[in-house]
Records
---
Amino acid sequence: MAFKINLLQLKEHGSVAEIRQDVVNVIGLTNCMNGQMVTIGESSRGVIVGFDADYVLVLLVKQTGAIKPGDKVTTTIDEFQVPVGDAFTGRIINALGEPIDGNGPIKETRRWPIFNIAPTVLERVPLDDVLQTGVKMVDMTLPVGKGQRMLILGDRMTGKTSVGLDAMINQKNEGVICIYSCIGKSEAALNKVIEVFNTHNIWEYGIIVAATAADPMGQQYLSPYVAASVGEYFTHEKNMDVLLVFDDFTKHAWAYRQISLLLERAPGRDAYPGDIFYIHSQLVERAGKMKEERGGGSMTHLPIVETLEGDFAGYIPSNIISMTDGQIYLNASLFGEGFKPAIDMGLSVSRIGSKVQWPAMKKQSSMLKMDYIRHKELEKMTRIKAGVSEAVEERLQKGRCLEELLKQNENEPVPLQEQVMILHALEKGFLQGTAPRDVSRKLSAFVAQVKNRRPEIVQSLIDTKTMTEEIKEALDEQLSQFSDTAV
Ligand SMILES: Nc1ncnc2c1ncn2[C@@H]1O[C@H](COP(=O)(O)OP(=O)(O)O)[C@@H](O)[C@H]1O
Ligand SMILES: [Mg+2]
């Protein structure tokens, strides 16, 4: 007679030998493996993070009561999984997949391993579709493809979180599930994000996975994995597009460093453990676009990294720069000058390039980056010289208008079709002779006029993504009819 073992029900028991802050040394577990979940005592939870000569090392994830030597430790022989499902949209969960928003239990569809292996290259396809962030400078010059990993980096208070949130606001009606992974941020910072979720009702298609600085180190370490798992359910099971913002990996690296020091692992560069590169690459590897046979879903990652005084060559920033497909660098001095979003075009790049861009946008924006960078150079050169010639002054003025065109308030993403209209107007000399302070108002008025008088043209632009003759003619006509008195 066949003898069937149900591994999921196979349990093993051990006991606590020693406790050092967030790490518990356990004896008596002989069949366990890394990444496995254990229950300590009544209901405290931990995850196995390593072994030494005598002990199994368990990182505390949730402590529900005092833990003392001799307490029973139970493990089921299976990897660490969290509940996932459709009902998670609109909710805030912790690193164990438990609701923490006070809105009651969440119906789980299934369980998902938190250290899931990323899909192989053979299961993926090259990126060909754009993820519209609504941040003009990103969509115009640093396009993000669905399935791309795009790093957002910069000093504190330079608008990093805002870029991530703008991209989420812009997914309304786009059918993209948005997940915000809060890692080691302050309670206040998390509340600000929740506020944006409330105001713009991101909850309809959004989820927050939160581990704040006040949560156990174990949760701060695990929370991005859990966020990725919650997302993978939508990407792989529902074949949907997912946008995942990790805010931020610097704090994640700190949490991991602290844990490693507690585990007495040999510290490496900057006291980070040697496998910190692996830790982060394993996470961002989970982004990608699946091929049709695998459902065609995608997961886009926007990891955030905080730099110290602009030092993007530091250990953690340079690691993550090397494992992503581009970076959006936010510059504190640009921010200080009032150029917001403070994206430094010279230091930002998207390695996916214009491949994913709308044809209409590709043509329009190809010169933009060069024009802008040339303007910044000219500005730098003329700053030291007093009087400049009339021709140079005219060029400067034009550059300033371009800067104004690129500026944007936070929480006000601009749809791609409107960006195309703006660029078309720019190309046709719409801003000639306009004072920089009038640029934003004038452009909004033009966009409003087109939307108002030719809504079918706007729709046609969305549908074709191309600057057809018909659209071009209609836009030109609207430009010629535009009168400043209407502003
Ligand atoms: N485009 C913008 N326009 C105006 N203010 C902005 C813009 N982006 C961000 N801010 C403001 O700048 C501050 C820092 O933004 P935040 O996104 O929290 O930065 P970081 O995440 O880099 O610390 C916030 O007060 C935010 O409201
Ligand atoms: Mg932030």
---
Amino acid sequence: MAIKLHRCKNLWVKGPHPCWTVQKALDDAGVNYEVVKEKWFGPREETVSRTGQKRFPWIEFEDGTVYREESKDMAARISSEKLTEAPRQQIGAQA
Ligand SMILES: N[C@@H](CCC(=O)N[C@@H](CS)C(=O)NCC(=O)O)C(=O)O
């Protein structure tokens, strides 16, 4: 099972875009992941309950813990091959 990248559904938007920045870093680092396209409109209950904030992107690890920081910091961590050391949260995680 791969990690999951929870991101906005605007997959076509490139450039200095938070979700694209992190997805590109995963691609460049050769990390295996699945994309979970999140709703743009509405209350974003899962994102809020699992990360404590409402923005994308965030990463869900195989054990259900999640990681969210500013996208540039996420990308830097991924590029430096330190994703497994990322600070993880388990707020509201599903079993
Ligand atoms: N400064 C944040 C911005 C994150 C951000 O704005 N993400 C977008 C999706 S690409 C989002 O969640 N937008 C909806 C909103 O701001 O409510 C970062 O770089 O991580």
